[in-house]
User: Fold these one by one.
Assistant:
Number 1:
Amino acid sequence: MATRKSVSSQRITLDYNNCLAEAVGKEHGLRPTELDRIERLTPKIAEKLATQRKNGKLPYRDLPYQDDMVASVLASARAKQGQFDNVVVLGIGGSALGTIAVHTACAHPFYNLLADKDRKGPRLFVMDNVDAAQFGALADMLDFRRTLFITISKSGSTAETMTQFLICRQKQIDTLGQKKHAENMIVITDREKGYLRPIAQQEGYETFPVPDGVGGRFSVFSAVGLLPLALTGVDIKNLLAGAALMDGSCKEPRLRRNPAFMSAAIQILFYNRKKPMSVMMPYSQALRDVADWYRQLWAESLGKVRKAGSREENVGPTPIKALGVTDQHSQVQLYREGPNDKIFTLLGVENFGRELPIPEAFEDVAGVGYLGGHTMNELMEAERRATAYALVKSQRPNVTISLPAVNEFTVGQLLYMMEVQTSFAGELMKINAYDQPGVEEGKVATYALMGRKGFAEAKKEIKALKSSKKFII
Ligand code: PA5
């Protein structure tokens, strides 16, 4: 049982010193009055979000407390223990990125390469693309008798996911027969709507619901993320406990006490001050895919057409994923000397779970000898601090979110904080953070080009798009 002290030592923190005018100067830093202005708006927004939640309009906020759903996920995972060598998730966008982010963070860094006895479950493959070379190669390698597929689609009609499903189902039937193939397929989709639900019923697949009103990018704490994670040995109860802890902090109506609200306020204030680029740069290999997950959450939620009276305007910050220290040798030159149009979120980790000493050698060689006697951990931390310092020196505002360690409990806090940050940012920007009409338009065009019934008009329109040979070289 976690004590209060051990819980508080596992809390993630937000340090925003380096984005203030005191640190980076008045031209590029936030003045207290700017934060005061948002602080005055915060109680009202907090109340609005709380009311929406109470009225069932923000169901993602309650996902950390769905005990029955967690019990059914864990029961399913337990029942499958030892039966499969591989779990393959078929899904895209919000149906895939949360699982990838948490698994990369919490599982062994080379999980799929571990021997069966050392792995906490089957290997995990999340297939979020329709590249025939890659998908075909995976299918060639898999033993379909020992592979469990999880098809995830809220709408139950996304062309990419349905294509993957059709290919894998056929291969399963060829290998196992029509009746038995159903034992190796699970479907996660809307409780009622969409084409996948009746297909699952007809084929006799085990199913889990994507909760009503929870969009893909907010679904990591539902069966969408929890089932594949539980099957592959991630401690989902601790993940949800972390999310619940952060929920406590996110109920706080005072801006300066609420990390999600404060982080959103900083992001949007800078967006409005001509810094539309939002870089997330984890100093941890394990957190690299959190930046990818965040990129989708931020982009799909906030990149919108906003009505301003009779006018329409296109708004939204551009999220950019980077990786410390790798991108210090790729992007930091631009970040320091290129346009000052970015706000940086560095992710730091205090305890990497193991320490790697650097052997002492070549003491007389100035450029090498100084490293000996330190640890690789010290080097990583020094580089994170060095980047924060270098950014400050060139007046680039940055904040740091620190995780005491990377584990289910801290990652649960981080992801939940980012989700609430997105809700608050949506309110500040006066847009609907929960729809994605721009994605739907692309989906319709794909249906049309692939010959789906009822989309002939759209096909005509696409075909009418002019392409002159003159401009192709
Ligand atoms: O976050 C979202 O809503 C999207 O990224 C969806 O997850 C993605 O488009 C896949 O949609 P679906 O789950 O309906 O197949």
Note: The chain is about 45% helix and 15% strand.
Number 2:
Amino acid sequence: MGWKHEMWDVIVVLLVVLLGASWVSLGTASVSYDKHSFIINGQRKILLSGSIHYPRSTPEMWPDLLKKAKEGGLDVVQTYVFWNGHEPQPGKYYFEGRYDLVKFIKLAQQAGLYVHLRVGPYACAEWNFGGFPVWLKYVPGVSFRTDNGPFKAAMQKFTTMIVNMMKSQRLYESQGGPIILSQIENEYGPMEYELGAPGKSYAQWAAKMAVGLGTGVPWVMCKQDDAPDPVVNACNGFYCDWFSPNKAYKPKMWTEAWTAWFTEFGGPVPYRPAEDLAYSVAKFIMKGGSFINYYMFHGGTNFGRTAGGPFIATSYDYDAPIDEFGLLREPKWGHLRDLHRAIKLCEPALVSGDPNVISLGNYQEARVFKSKSGACAAFLANNNQHSFAKVAFGNMHYNLPPWSISILPDCKNTVYNTARVGAQSSRMKMTPVGRGFSWQSYNEETSSYDDSTFTATGLLEQINTTRDASDYLWYMTDVRIDSREAFLKGGKWPWLTVYSAGHALHVFINGQLVGTSYGSLENPKVTFSKAVYLRAGVNKISLLSIAVGLPNVGPHFETWNAGVLGPVSLTGLNEGKRDLTWQKWSYKIGLKGEVLSLHSLSGSSSVEWVQGSFVAQKQPLTWYKTTFDAPAGNEPLALDMNTMGKGQIWINGQSIGRYWPGYKASGACGACNYAGWFDEKKCLSKCGEASQRWYHVPRSWLRPTGNLLVAFEEWGGNPYGVSLVKREVASVCADIYEWQPQLMNWEMQASGKVTRPLRPKAHLSCGAGQKITSIKFASFGTPRGSCGSFSEGSCHAFHSYDIFQKYCIGWNSCTVPVTPEAFGGDPCPSVMKKLSVEVICS
Ligand code: GAL
């Protein structure tokens, strides 16, 4: 009996250990993984994912965005959970509107997508305070993202709340829901490195705490080389093919493949060529990667005061495959869709085992994947950024453009090359709609002492004072000037110097704006220094300090200061220098107009506005309001704010966000070649122009008539230059080589329907509801340039336009074969030709 008992004990213990420790690979759980891939319900998958952050668009936009993500070939949608949106006050939760997380996840499932939920709760994401509620900073004894009791308690509480919510809605895959993965923390590795031991124990704690919540699906930590089992560590970056997970039995995962980069006020707008993005993804997959997430697939908008930074722009477009307004960005979206289809054709071979690596030259290699059932897929890479390569593979030769990868789902035929874009390009336009606005204005007070004013000796830190209830904090003080001062008798004016920790500052003397200073993301600090006129007697110095989003990244970013911390001084007085830092200062949080809720329907009618010719222009600190009717149609809308300086906009009481077209983009915008290593400084646009000119107005925020538009302008601008515009496709282009591989052709051949080689086709498709109205350019031969600026080369088929005239005009879309016959015969035999065409959509 005795030994039997012991045996059973041992077996039970063994079973428990086995089930507990290797649940991830037993296949009992619905989502598991091994070295080659994640496994969902027993099926190995190459997972293609994209980030869409739910509060960066409206619930009305979600179904369409998710549909476009699915049609773009994604399997998964990834989002952070935005703590400060969900718990604006301790214990007061909000899950409505743009923060309806459950709805978003359910819509994803309806669209046929899985979800990767990055609970964090630290997000980073260029989101205000990295996603942390500002009140968290004031929890006694708290220290963020380290081995700190109060912080860990708050983090655990929120994480548990979210996990329980997901469970109760049965949203985990293990319950039949779409969530296949969760993330805890975000890019903590670099932070841990800075913090040392407490960082390390915090990371271990976070992993253990998360795993202990029993979601039934794996947890992920990105940029966390020491992520403890069973947590999967993942890579973020512009390229991640070099990455390998910390254990041989974990899949190779890329949580953030950056589709470009964010825009900051004052910075140019980054973009990333589709060819390079596709190359980086194909390279990751060919090197054994099995999960890739585009950050962002739809970037969207930092509505309200959700932008982090400081200085992060309101647009979070990110040059993503779906643009800020929800329209397809072509050719990026289409080129990735084609890539995804090519990868999926290779899936059976890709998930089956390690590839055979064959060198094809100094910069060229092939990787061949084979499955037991006989599937074979090959990737041929030319990593040389300067030259074409002709490589021998199997018993064929293949031409590889510079910095490109060809995909051969049958190890023979190329169906896709990352540098050969078969998808159409489109150019967008912003067309004014409706009549000009008829404005009314209201002057904000420049030195307003009222019930809410309070005083202190010396200068207060801004965030501690406002708790981020407003961007604005007034610092006001009195300066007595003796009538015997020399400058009053024709001498030099005294200098006022103000040092501020950031982010922007307007200086008023006796109610008059005397100057403005502001920092940048790189250096948020502000120094104001100027000769100012003061009168004999008492002068009022009023400093309006403005926070432009709270920091979201960096070691202990929660401790970074903002506001006028001093010193503040006057020099050039009879006495020499007078330090104002430690005298009595009066404070006021927010603007009078904010207190009055001028942005809202009821608030805006509580004061008297001036109209007609009295409407203020080029005047600082001015509120503007107008009403307008919703334009017909369903194109996305925006406000063109180019003639304004800096401020905020509201529509029907909802905040569109901060605007700052007065901050011009400084930087070097040059030509940008797709080939070669990309980083966020390589490809830039809008230098010398406003970093952000257009501000998204969600259609769903409008009613048919009488919409209230309110703007608060800090600098002084011309409101009559503001217009409502609709965004639509202006023209579409195709740029396709003869014999360029196309997936559809390969599919037709593989199915045995055709035996002869097939020529590629050009597909042109205008926006919904539009028609092709004219052919701007068409040339079959050796045309040059790119979409928008094509020109004929030395070889040009005389009848290049005819076929488009015949088959495209009057239609929403058309398809034309890229063959000499289609253009009236070969204009230059034995020369490699292509078709470039641009058609106008209206
Ligand atoms: C990553 C971070 C993201 C986002 C990104 C830049 O490091 O994880 O949340 O901030 O950088 O857009």
Note: Residues 457 and 584 are 5 Å apart (CA to CA).
Number 3:
Amino acid sequence: MSVRLRLTVLYSSILAFTLIAFSIVLYVTLSRLTLGVVADTLAEEAKRLLDRKVIDDQIFLFNGQEYRLGRIVLPASGFAAPQTYVQTINAGGIVTSRTANLVDEGVVLPLSDAAFEAVFSGEKTIEQATVKDGKLLVFTRPVVVEGNRIVGAVQVARSLDEYVQSQDTLRRILVIGSIVVTVIAFGIGWMLAGIALRPIDRITHTAQAIGTERDFGRRVDYTGPYDEIGRLATTFNEMLGALQSAYRQEAQALQAQRRFVADASHELRTPLTTIRGNIALLQREPPISSEDRIDVLADMADESERMSRLVNDLLVLARADAGRPLRSEPVALRPLIEDVCRKVRVVAAQHTIDCTQLDDVSVQGDEDAIKQVLLILLDNGRKFTPPGGQIVVTTEEAPQQVIIHVRDTGLGIDPAALPHIFERFYRGDSSRTGGGAGLGLAIAQSLVKAQHGTIGVTSTIGEGSTFTIRLPKASQAAPIERTAAAADGS
Ligand code: ADP
């Protein structure tokens, strides 16, 4: 059964039960009230009769003695209602007199044994009786003389036909009314449930379509208020948005990975081909001259060196991709930068490496990773700056961060190349690349990112480039001895 039908049936059943209960209570209460009113009238009538002494001189038996009990002298029309019947009985239960309307219809008012007993022990009774297909309400009260002697009873009755008729009509109205109201309510409920559940239907269709077409660009079309259904539709759409971007990211990552693997294989193939060619030369018969052999071996050593550098770089990137966490501890920058500068000076004798404008600040990060990033940047500066040029490293303190600038006075980077230099295997103008595989800046970026920092660049062709690293400031200063020891050890 659908939710729509279940809701409608449930709600209609509750309404139907409520109507039935209400009808029963109304019916019973009205019946009791009406009967009570008739019974009160009859009791009043009986009292009036006895007060007026309209009953006199009628013979009746009491304890074997003859008494006279009154004769009813008032005509039926003299009562409050014309359909009032009056009858007297003596202590023997014999009817001693009746009003004209009873005589005319040949009817004797009945009195059950139980009521007879009750009346002759001094109580008043009220009974319903069926006489000649009609219903009567009969009130009976004892006739007491000389203080406490019950000499007979007077019965006053009235037809209940009108009452029965009105009860029938009321019952019909209640039954038909309840059925009609329930049916109308079912129809309206069915319609409202349909309207309320329509967006859910749409969500289901959208979900089904996405399942078959894998089109995460689809959205549920909902324009209603922001109620439970509205929230569901919005949440569903947000979830689709998240799914779509996750799907897109995954596709991009997969594509990047494919490209990376293809580039890596390509890069590895070049030195391998050279080495293989050189081995073939060494195996040649007759053997090559000893001068040539020295050149070939030097070549092979260079290529092996290049390959092992490449494999190392790939390993660093693979680790970064796997999300291997770096250390996060306070690192004092001044000794670290000075140490890196000292190392670069050894291989950059024709350049000025200026590392004098440094602050005594500490960053929160991994000492080895920061060193590696600076080595990459300084090495690039050296590679892309003509002899005699200058490379300057400075630090700057910001509220939450420490900024490191690595500025060179080199060739600068072509604005078209600028957005790509952090990509893996990207190399600028091949005549100026200095034999790198294009992985240096990609490695630098992933190491900085892993320390919750950023790296950026500004450059002017012919004037030089400035690389800017931002790293989170350490909450406390790095212990000097540790850093000095680390610097000595490297
Ligand atoms: P590689 O390891 O080949 O140097 P990088 O990722 O370090 O690769 O650099 C990518 C490219 O960015 C280089 O080929 C070069 O074109 C450009 N580049 C990087 N640093 C500088 C710099 N300081 N000055 C000019 N160009 C640079």
Note: Residues 99 and 193 are 66 Å apart (CA to CA).
